[in-house]
Amino acid sequence: MANSQDKPQNQQQSQQQNQAQGQQQSRMPNRQQSQPRSALQSRQPGCSRIQQPNHGQSHPQNHFRSQPGRHLAKLFLVLILITAFVGYGYQKLRKDPITKSDFLLNTFVSVTIYDSQDERLLDGCMELCREYERIFSRTIENSEVSRLNNRKPGENKVQVSPAAAELIQKGLEYSALSGGAFDITIEPVSSLWDFSGGSQAVPDEEALKKGASLVDYRQAAVEGNCVIFSSPDTRIELGAIAKGYIADKIKEYLAGKGVKSALINLGGNVLCIGERPDKTPFKIGLQKPFQDRRETAAILSIADQSVVTSGIYERCFERDGKFYHHILNPADGFPYDNGLLSVTIVSPCSADGDALSTVCFSLGLEKGMALINRIPQTYAYFITKDYQIHCSNGAEALLESLPAGANP
Q: How many distinct structural domains can be found in the chain?
């Protein structure tokens, strides 16, 4: 019911005047209620609205009730449009990462940049790979390593680029660290094997014995930008360390261009620049040996670190029921058989991780683990033939979860 103060003040007006006022009120909001109803109050839950007879004119109360519903509908539509516009703008601001892949360094390489849309940076990364491949490859004619290995008789001092001198020096240091279990002068042996999908033949045992007798890292040295050989038979192979060095140089190049979030993958040698754009670590899979690349033994949380694996399951073949892989023992020229399937190294520098993964594999589980535990900010995961994961000190902290069979 309407309140008393809402009634007309002159109760003596004629019936005609009342009818005129009624027609005017039909075009105005009803003031019979002291407070406006909300949209939820305009109809009782579970009740249907009873339609009143129109009698040729609109009902004031129904007109009043319809207005809040229409306003709320309009407001709801505006909110939807605003939300859609803001979402579209956010998607436009959140750019997709840019990436480029190629077949270089005798493997598939890729670089993904998360905080830049400059495609020229990717081209620069690929060009760096080509440039360093022309320096370090032993199979490309006229590369620096090829010229070293095919030096003239009596030429025992050869000038090289600063990059070649730097990497050869690092390789000699790790050869010494391993006591020769890893040796960058293994080319007289490694050149006898073909693990790239060619003949896949087992070399003659006498040829391997002769080649192994020529392997000795102590017959080479670096002075400035010159490599000095003490033996005319000493030849160099940098395949076990070059990709890590190149990854470091790509990171250096991108950082110089202002990139703070990127992922470099050179045939499984992974180097993370910073973190993901959302400030979370990159998730790097620890591949399960002899399984599909998508099947992982564990997941690592990595920020601004390198992850490098040396394993026996990528470059390998079987002949006459015997398994052969590319990690060769300098002592006899045959593949190592020490119960290991792979060794993964996490380190700040990819060249160090590349070298250490092969060094630790060559040393075996016990000696390799002892070595890694002496090197700061460096962690290792050894997978043995029973598929157990053996973690060095502190390595389990980088695991998403410690898988069954892991031995921290």
A: 2
